[in-house]
Amino acid sequence: MAPRGPLAAAFEGSLMSPQALTASALREWLQLAHAPGLSPAVLQALLDAFGSPAALLRASDPAIAAVSSPAAAQAVRASERDDLGARTDAARAWLDAPGNALVTLGDPAYPPRLRDLHDPPPLLYVKGRLDLLNARGLAVVGSRHATPQGLADATRFARELSDAGLSIVSGLALGIDGAAHRGGLDGRSGTIAVIATGADLVYPARHRALAHEIAAHGAIVSEWPLGTPARAAHFPQRNRLIAALAVGVLVVEAAPRSGSLITARLANELGRDVFAMPGSIHAPLAQGCHALIRDGAKLTAAPLDVLEEYGLGEPTAGAAGVASCSGNPGANTGDLQETEPAGCGAVAGTGRTDPAVPAAAPARIEAPPPPPPGNPSEQAVLAALGYGPVTYEWLAEHSGLSDDVLHRALLALELAGRVASLPGGRFARLDAAPTPPAHGMLHFPA
């Protein structure tokens, strides 16, 4: 039998392990799951009809055509390619590494939320904590070109949501995704990275260290064959898995034509909750979130705005939490390789039953915000900044300071971590705005 990546002992078998596959069964699944011309939706219908990959491969062309189409029968017949043996050997070698698992569509361990999709992936390559795929999770997504404030918000929200019992799902992209994973790792419930390459590759290369940490303490999930490089068309497909795995999606920052809005739209179509963080009306990366809010997404200004939707409320000290994810000695990260292909940019009713929700975890004690600076010129700069990126010219006009005084004040505030310099000669304050009261949930229209 093909060796399987074990579940960490810390989770005491609360979720069933994936079924072990014989060498022949592994070959059959690989043959069909990655067959050209055989989409996941068609393959699901054929497997429902014939019961197993082996039975499907034995079926006659007329029988297959009767269930689907002559084209599907032809695709099944042409699925045994010359490289199948090599791909099977590579998959078995990958499964030999501790922490690696292959979950098939027919496996009881297959994430039930993915079955809400009309085209659930036939195979899932998983590195790390398989249990997270069945835990209640929230997707946190946003721009790859996030502002410093957006990155800080994504990290803080993800950490507090993770502490309260929601694992964090995101796509390992630069910007908000990376910050969300960091917050999820720092919290108690962990994080899932859904990637658009093979599970043995890392894209973007700058997230190599982060990917290894997620593989060791969270989970990396891919539907693509091992060795698949990043391709632009894969990212929207990746987004559908992010939306499906989570009970809701929080968009932190997004331009009007952002891939994060694809994830939000897919989440809405699946009946998931959609949350969006507001920003300045002048900030380009707030426009996508404002559009979502206009369409019915819940305006989200504090983690509690999300937690109250799932009955988690304010995290309380001393409440039982999710088991720490650091106790997974079997997780292997050594077979992750970097891939950074040139010219490949990330494009960015259900009636579901959720597993038991972990009890709320202890809230982290946040350090109080730094006191307002005593220098009047620094106070004038912060007042002029507001809470959206502005230009130097705006600051000069609205602070009333001379150039030399304004330069000194900005430098002091940057050194103090109160202000960040952004591309394009803009500036933004990094301390959080006051939190408005929570509002009721607004769902997207059907």
What keyword list fits this structure?
single chain; 446 residues; alpha/beta; Rossmann fold; Arc Repressor Mutant, subunit A; 9-stranded mixed sheet; 3-stranded antiparallel sheet; 16 helices; elongated; disordered N terminus; DprA; DrpA_SLOG; WH-like_DNA-bd_sf
SSE diagram, text form:
Layout: H1 23-33, H2 40-50, H3 53-58, H4 61-67, H5 70-77, H6 84-96, E1 100-104, E2 123-128, E3 137-141, H7 148-163, E4 167-170, H8 176-186, E5 191-194, E6 201-202, H9 208-217, E7 219-222, H10 234-245, E8 248-251, H11 259-269, E9 273-276, H12 287-294, E10 298-299, H13 303-307, E11 337-338, H14 376-385, E12 390-391, H15 392-399, H16 403-415, E13 419-422, E14 426-429
Parallel strand pairs: 3-4, 3-8, 4-5, 5-7, 6-11, 8-9, 9-10
Antiparallel strand pairs: 1-2, 2-7, 12-14, 13-14
Helix pairs in contact: 1-6, 4-5, 7-8, 8-9, 10-11, 14-15
Give a verbal description of the structure:
Belongs to the DprA/Smf family. InterPro entries: DprA, DprA_WH, DrpA_SLOG, WH-like_DNA-bd_sf. Residues 366-425 form the DprA winged helix domain. Residues 102-310 form the Smf/DprA SLOG domain. Pfam families: DNA_processg_A, WHD_DprA. The chain has 446 residues and is an alpha/beta fold. It has 3 domains: 9-97, no CATH class; 128-338, 3-Layer(aba) Sandwich (Rossmann fold), CATH 3.40.50.450; 376-429, Winged helix-like DNA-binding domain superfamily/Winged helix DNA-binding domain (Arc Repressor Mutant, subunit A, Orthogonal Bundle), CATH 1.10.10.10. 36% of the residues lie in helices and 12% in strands. It has a 9-stranded mixed sheet, sandwiched between helices. Strands 12-14-13 form a 3-stranded antiparallel sheet. A hairpin with a 3-residue loop joins strand 13 (419-422) and strand 14. The longest helix is centred in the middle third of the chain and has 16 residues, at 148-163. The two termini are 47 Å apart. The relative contact order is 0.12.
